[in-house]
Amino acid sequence: MVAVVELDHVINGSYPRGSPVLAGVRVVVRSPSDELNFGVDESYKLSVPTTGNPLYAQIEAQTVYGALHALETFSQLCTFDFNARLIELHSAPWTILDKPRFPYRGLLIDTSRHYLPVPVIKSVIDSMTFSKLNVLHWHIVDEESFPLQIPSYPKLWNGAYSYSERYTIDDAIDIVQYAEQRGVNVLAEIDVPGHALSWGVGYPSLWPSATCKEPLDVSSDFTFQVINGILSDFSKIFKFKFVHLGGDEVNTSCWSATPRIKSWLIQHGMNESDAYRYFVLRAQKIAISHGYDIINWEETFNNFGDKLDRKTVVHNWLGSGVAEKVVAAGLRCIVSNQDKWYLDHLDATWEGFYMNEPLTNIYNPEQQKLILGGEVCMWGEHIDASDIQQTIWPRAAAAAADCQF
């Protein structure tokens, strides 16, 4: 925090006689708990007086996470004076009372389309704190690669791009702990049943056939044993309340095109649509058995919303009008509509980032509470470690202003 305040400059000037000088910042945190639970109190009061001897700024917060936000705000009040070679704080006195609009303020990164080294992920987490974003949605795997070690099924990461473009369990734990120390939860995603071609590199029996490789084989118990193993391992690493199970863009044609799966569908009285629903709901039950609430992309709601477990959070991405339907059905929702908050859409306008409102057309206070917040998405098809930060920022900060303090 001192480095952030000083902006990495050398402070070697002298104060003009009679100028008020802050002796420091006093921080009062009322709760002894440092658990980063979902919905933790992130409010704070920051006071910067101009009189007193000695003169101290004061931070009061219920939790350490509110205090972290207050320190971030304090750092943004400070500027480096290049002439005086001092840190100055203008327009005091200040009294700032602050709290977030929404408990969920997310940023998605995608390590399946381009591998991101651990230091790069940590740098993204550091930058999130500047705008007080508090959930790193880690889209870990997809059809292109499976870079994460899964002890229960150790051949899964054979689907990584290369031997070196992988994350060990210890890497994942390190990322989670690094994020938590900065008030950021890590939401892990495995996208099933589609977007999973890479799974079969290590376990080919997960593919419907050698020539038709996704979605995952709905007819095989082994498929769900693997999902259970992944989520069991996740529960030891990713302590956030939620896990993301994807569920979007599922092309089910491979199931009917594979004779043994087609026979299974007929035996169970299912068509492809029924099997898609069966897969999502069975995966949800597995996640719940490991203590998670579930997040699914909106196609699951659009296709069979009344069948989703009540612990489901629907992740809106396709467009407008979905969130109001989700909350009307009594389910929770996260807003990421692609025309406004997809960072890989370079044609998305500044006005869209600033003006996107998660509560559009939702007027009932009880339904408004079901909107957990919003998320900007940095999909990785066209970015890598060399340009991820300049593609995320500054537009993500505009969305953060809508979603939070």
From TrEMBL:
The active site is at 249 (proton donor). The keyword Metal-binding does not apply. The keyword Glycoprotein applies. Gene3D superfamilies: Chitobiase/beta-hexosaminidase domain 2-like (3.30.379.10), Glycosidases (3.20.20.80). It catalyses: Hydrolysis of terminal non-reducing N-acetyl-D-hexosamine residues in N-acetyl-beta-D-hexosaminides. Its EC number is 3.2.1.52. Residues 22-77 form the Beta-hexosaminidase eukaryotic type N-terminal domain. Belongs to the glycosyl hydrolase 20 family. PANTHER family: BETA-HEXOSAMINIDASE (PTHR22600), BETA-HEXOSAMINIDASE A (PTHR22600:SF21). This is beta-N-acetylhexosaminidase. It comes from Urochloa decumbens.
